Amino acid sequence: MEASARSASWNGTSVTAVHCSTGTGPFRSLAGEQPLIEEDGARFAAIIWEPALTAPMPPAKVHREQLLHILHVAQRQNVQVQVLPMAEWRAAHLSSHFVMLSFGPEPAPEAVAYDTSTSTVLVEDLAEMAAHARIFEALSAAALTPDQSLAFVWKALASIPESEKAAE
Question: Cα(129)–Cα(95) distance, rounded to whole angstroms?
């Protein structure tokens, strides 16, 4: 989607835009834009399945940088990160990834977005949004607490070899 079309699609809403250099769909940034997560207004919650944090990822330097970024962003007052342990595989398979969006001051979902292999789907059906809200609650309940999750990420970071030669 071109920047002007993306802007027009959000026209008239009070959404806080989040540009993520690794994002996809309407959440991907344009070249040259810096990632933006502000502490005023918007709240962010992420539940990350353990294998996404611990699976070997060459090069090790990039893996370390990604975990450090998660730890950095998680320090903000408006960001909550939780890790869903591998043992909670049943909860992990409740749904593929999705993003719930709320455009007003209340955290009630007003849309759900998820990516397919060719596009981003935006769902505004009340029943589907309610189902995603229940899935998010189940994932959150099965996940480690935010403090336990940060400790887990630190442990995962410590397990990555410092040099590329050590990884061989």
Answer: 13
